[in-house]
Amino acid sequence: MANVSLKNVTKVFDNKVIAVRCLSLEIRDREFFVLVGPSGCGKSTILRLIAGLDEPTEGDIYIDDILVNDLSPRDRDVAMVFQNYALYPHMKVYDNLSFSLRLRRHPKSLIDNKVKEAAGILGIEGLLPRKPSELSGGESQRVAVGRAIVRAPKVFLFDEPLSNLDAKLRVQMRAEIQKLHRELGTTMIYVTHDQIEAMTMGERIVVLNEGEVQQIDTPLNLYYSPANVFVAGFIGNPPMNFIRGSITSDNGYVFVSNNTKIPLSSDFDEQLAEYRAKEVVLGVRPEDIYGEGTERGLSSSQLLSKDPIEVTVDFLELMGNESLIYTKTEGTPLIMRAPADVSCERGQTINVYLDLAKLHWFDGITGKRIEKQ
Ligand SMILES: Nc1ncnc2c1ncn2[C@@H]1O[C@H](COP(=O)(O)OP(=O)(O)O)[C@@H](O)[C@H]1O
Ligand SMILES: [Mg+2]
């Protein structure tokens, strides 16, 4: 069991590719911590730095409050599970599981106990005599996790371990890994590019882009209070809609974007005071847009924008339980959630209204969230 901390860690490859930039993270003992971000944002590099497979160009890494910069991977007491499983193809599952313990010259009976215990936890006792070529994707994945479990590491590192599985198995394995976390009570650091996987698994999540931290927070805080336009657009599916415009005052504040005008209630006066006549980005999630002919239950406390935004329906996705309406207004795409039995059609023009209490505001230049005062 251990906490992991990175202090101002930078990794530069070949003197030019900055994979990780001045990264500081404090991962708590027993935490399930997720690193999420688009491909190439530095996730694998961060795991490899923690595991000791790569050296930081600058900065310090601590495991269990011990500086590990100069410790070899095997002395760091961490175990990594890779996306491609990296099983030894010529060895039976039993030998794949026992390999690291044999290297460390543990007694045979102890090795046998540990292998059987790990196999028991994962329900793969029946696979022990098989070769990796005789396993399905899901089974290989379990064996790869089993190989980490037998080592009883202080920290588990998972690098996109579910990416090669089909959708159904992925959901099942998510639950299994979380159960494993509860049972073992070990710190787990989990990398994924999939925001849904991050949201459903992480106790806390760091969102990364181009090697830099965008926000470190709980899943719901990321969703409801994204720190910038990047996080707002990355977390949530379908993504948040953005409309670029400016704030003018005309008998109260008004958001203006081309011909669209959204008069704002006085609730926004303080929040937007500094942004009068400046560029802002208005963010609104698909579930916070309400359209004529697509009414969903509105509670009496909800305050919708008074003036409609006129949008043209591009296409519809009817999913059975709900529908997604893809629209455009003056060239800006707006996606909205609607009931299953939505009545609008392609090419139709409809009026939509925004839930004023749910609007997100971002600085038009820096992209940073404009906080409520
Ligand atoms: N060994 C390496 N040599 C040079 N560049 C690398 C190396 N490993 C990773 N990179 C670069 O560092 C960046 C981050 O890569 P990576 O950590 O693999 O991203 P992710 O896992 O988030 O997809 C990418 O631009 C990648 O091309
Ligand atoms: Mg990667």
TrEMBL record:
Entry-linked PROSITE patterns: ABC_TRANSPORTER_1 (PS00211), ABC_TRANSPORTER_2 (PS50893)
GO cellular component, as recorded: ATP-binding cassette (ABC) transporter complex, substrate-binding subunit-containing
NCBIfam families: PRK11650.1
GO biological process per UniProt: carbohydrate transport
InterPro entries noted in UniProt: AAA+_ATPase, ABC_transporter-like_ATP-bd, ABC_transporter-like_CS, ABC_transpr_MalK-like, ABC_transpr_MalK/UgpC-like, Mo/tungstate-bd_C_term_dom, NA-bd_OB-fold, OB_MalK-like
SUPFAM superfamilies linked: MOP-like (SSF50331), P-loop containing nucleoside triphosphate hydrolases (SSF52540)
One Gene Ontology MF term: ABC-type transporter activity
Residues annotated as domain ABC transporter: 4-235
Species name: candidate division WOR-3 bacterium JGI_Cruoil_03_44_89
Protein name per the record: Glycerol-3-phosphate ABC transporter ATP-binding protein
Keywords of the record: ATP-binding, Nucleotide-binding, Transport
